[in-house]
Specification:
Oligomer: single chain
Mean pLDDT: 87
Structural class: alpha+beta
Number of helices: 2
Order of helices and strands: EEHHEEE
Shape: globular
Number of strands: 5
Strand content: 25-35%
Distance between the termini: 44 Å
Strand order of the largest sheet: 1-2-5-4-3
Radius of gyration: 14 Å
């Protein structure tokens, strides 16, 4: 694992679900979540407003911002949603909060 990264086995704790609802119409999502799954869950098209091929929520944020956003930063999407980075490092976003913009 020190060389190649995490290797899942039967002793590992199961990870949180990739997306779950919060009060107020907000959601918390794993940045590795497939963007199509998020679009389906929120009944929104996020990829329409962005040029390029996007597979994950983290990829969407990178395409919108043009950089990896640091923890605590947020960015608005033209579809009416704000993405706030909850966890990550200088190379990737790991967890985000998705908030409807009024």
């Amino acid at each position: 694992e020190e060389i190649v990264g995490d290797i899942e086995d039967e002793h590992d704790e199961p990870e949180d679900e990739p997306i779950h609802a919060l009060p107020g119409g907000r959601y918390e999502a794993d940045a590795r979540l497939d963007i199509e799954a998020l679009e389906e869950r929120l009944d929104t098209n996020f990829t329409e407003a962005v040029d390029g091929e996007i597979d994950t929520v983290g990829g969407l944020l990178f395409m919108i911002a043009g950089q990896v956003l640091p923890v605590g930063e947020s960015i608005d999407h033209p579809a009416g949603w704000r993405f706030e980075v909850l966890a990550g490092d200088e190379r990737r976003v790991e967890r985000v909060r998705v908030i409807p913009v009024e």
